[in-house]
Amino acid sequence: MKIAKFAFGLICLAILASNIVTMSRWSEARGVYDDICYLRQAHLFQRFGVHGLNTDAARDDDHHFEGRMKEIGFAEWADPIRWPCHNPMPSSKIVIQYPPGTGFLLSLFPEGHQVVPLYVAASLIVCGLALFGIFMARTPVSVVGAGAFGALAVYLMINPAKASYSVAPTMAVCAVAGYLTALWLRREKRSVLLIALIALLLGASVNFRLPNALLVAGYALFLGISFLRSRTWADLVQGVGFIVGLLAGVTPTLIAQAINAGSPMATTYGSADVVAPAFDLATLGRYLRDMQFVLIVLALGSTAWLLRLGEGGARRVALVAAGNLAVNLVFFLSHPIFTPYYVVPIAMLSLWSVSFAWLMQPQELRQASSVRRRPASLEALPR
User: What does the alpha-carbon distance between residue 39 and residue 36 come to, in Å, rounded to a whole number?
Assistant: First the structure.
């Protein structure tokens, strides 16, 4: 098994190296509207510090964004109301629609050389956890599974993660949160600090993409059902820790919305993005033809497998993943707008959680579960 671990480790590192070489050739002026808007947010942070949360178009008095618009040949560069990914607010401000997290991370690197370091840093985190998973594996089957999944996770950091700057940091957070989820649920006595940290991380991911708020759905369902079944102070404290961590994580976005939209609960997105759910065969067909469908199948299959064969904490992880997948897939498959990355975060969070939950089981349980066939139920929840 040492040879297999070494081989899969080399494969992951080779993919990482190939990705870094490819990333090093990326241009920060590829003409994508989302890109230049994230870079405008980064410029505001570098110029104004924390006051960069205010993304009013009037603050472009150094003509930074106008210059980027000219570079890509945008005809209406002089009219802020026509700027891409900006929306007018009731206060008459014209502001960036995205939450501030991605721009903040980009601002940590020198202007003109921001995207590549962000992607490399996120890729290193993902690759590190992939190697850790391979190291944890104790059977030939688990080595192969951890190695194959690790290689896939590292590869995904360039495709489809390159489709939006917000995806790379989201993928890194999902990897860390998946490991912590397995660590949190593998014991009967669960750590309040761990669930608070998980909530903090997932809350922080909302600062990259607002839809990342849905990544906490499975955790909220699990904690809520656990408390209703047990009515104990221990489960209540778990829920309180989760809420506190989540609120701390999303605070930057709430502050940004208060500054730009006039209220922490008001959105800076336009009406085109805030649409009612409606299942559409054309949208579903696009998912079926996209790589995301493969990830959905893998996430659903591995979760169902762990529900059936897992023990104790592993099954609890599968229950959290199942709730998360149900809520997120219903939302995104009924959302009329399609992108190549919408369901990637929930698929990867589920796969990371399930993978580490399986690897953390004692070896004798992993071997015994391969010959048992017992249906999963809510009996896995603590009473």
Answer: 5
pLDDT digits 0-9 by tens, 303-353: 999 999 878 889 999 999 999 999 999 999 988 888 899 999 999 999 999
d(CA 105, CA 46): 11
Whole-number Å distance between alpha carbons of 317 and 85: 37
Structure tokens at 110: 């020198």
Answer yes or no: is pLDDT of 380 > 90.
no
267-299 pLDDT, tens digit each: 998 766 666 666 778 888 888 899 999 999 999
Residues 83, 93 contacting (CB under 8 angstroms): no
Give the DSSP H or E segment for 91.
Answer: none
DSSP 254-312: HHHHHHHHSSTTS--S-TTTS------HHHHHHHHTSHHHHHHHHHHHHHHHHHHH--T
Looking at residue 272, its pLDDT comes to 62
Number of H helices, E strands in the chain: 15, 2
pTM for this entry = 0.91
Contact 150, 138 (CB under 8 A): no
Q: Which long-range contacts (CB under 8 A, 24 or more apart) does 47-54 make?
A: 52/100, 52/103, 52/104, 52/107, 53/100, 53/252, 53/255, 53/256, 53/259, 53/260, 54/259, 54/260
Q: What is the pLDDT of residues 95-154, one digit of tens each?
A: 999 999 999 999 999 998 999 999 999 999 999 999 999 999 999 999 999 999 999 999
User: How many residues belong to the chain?
Assistant: 383
pLDDT band at 376; cut points 50, 70, 90: very low
Question: Which residues, listed in sequence order, are joined to residue 87 by a DSSP beta bridge?
Answer: 95
Return the exposure string of 129-159: e unless at least 16 CB atoms fall within 10 Å of the residue's CB, then b. Answer: bbbebbebbeeeebbebbbebbbbbbbbbbe
Residues 191, 187: Cα–Cα separation, whole Å:
9
> Phi, psi at residue 348, to the nearest 5°?
-75, -40
What pLDDT is recorded for position 336?
Answer: 82
Residues 6+ apart with CB under 8 A from 318: 303, 304, 306, 307, 310, 354, 357, 376, 380
- Cα torsion at 205, 208, 214, 215 (round to 10°)? -30
Q: How far apart are CA 361 and CA 312, in angstroms?
A: 9
Burial 238-250 (b: 16+ CB within 10 A, else e): bbebbbbbbeebb
